[in-house]
User: What shape does this take?
Amino acid sequence: MTLTTDYHSGKAYVVTGGCSGIGLAILHYLLARSAIVHILDISSTPPQVPSHLPQKNLHFYPNTDVTSGSIVRNVFTQIRTITTTIHGLINNAGIAYQPVVTGLESDELFDRVMDVNVRGVWNVGNAYLSHILSREADEQPNPAAAIEGRGVIVNLCSIASFHGNLGYVSYTVSKHAVLGMTRAWATNFAAQGVRVNGVAPGGTDTPLLQGIMAKTDIQEQYESQVPLGKRCARPEEIADAVGFLLGKESSYMTGQVITVDGGRYV
Ligand SMILES: NC(=O)c1ccc[n+]([C@@H]2O[C@H](COP(=O)([O-])OP(=O)(O)OC[C@H]3O[C@@H](n4cnc5c(N)ncnc54)[C@H](O)[C@@H]3O)[C@@H](O)[C@H]2O)c1
Assistant: This one.
């Protein structure tokens, strides 16, 4: 398959959690293709961008907590003063935690994980869908737009969207919910020309993973069970799958989730 490298050029995307790990790799992927990228992150420090990439195409909204619907809506208002058409959204921001392998996960942990991983996706997805629907009201029926699509969403799911991962009850519940949101949005907004898909990474070498596995031998055990290379994914390998779902090569796909786990869960 040949990827069209200039498809994203000049198109605008919103990426949540783009300061680290997979979100940062998605930012680099899009900037390398001359896209305009709006990064929403709870971090106050801008994402690091190599000097060969077009820095001017990056717009950063620091201290943006996706759990707050009003903060997210305000940021979308700011984005629309710069970018009238937002071509795509990547719902990537998420949290995990040290595994709880004996005993119960606390109510506080459950609430925080659901807030970021589910409410956050809900908030940003609804702000984006609202942008699409308001554009639709302004547009005349246009068969070309229906083919091209009015918008595209890629949600970061997980292998925990399909499996009951040991030590991660709240996280597993949250990622099953993101899978459900992916399918429900795909079903409900296909008629408006919006495609909604997901990428489900297996263990991926990011600060999130390093944070939760640093004090355990879980990573070594996990990697020994990965058929492709006995290793975790590189963030760029997840970004490639996200790029495919954003692009025209996936124009007839919606409501689907691509697992990128080195064959761990075949
Ligand atoms: N790393 C893995 O092994 C793995 C596996 C499967 C799925 N995922 C998913 O991929 C996504 C990215 O994970 P990662 O490993 O790159 O994590 P990461 O911790 O490296 O990066 C997450 C980013 O999200 C931001 N963020 C966290 N909470 C936020 C909030 N409330 N509002 C706005 N931004 C917030 C962080 O500041 C950070 O920039 C997550 O949804 C995660 O669940 C990761």
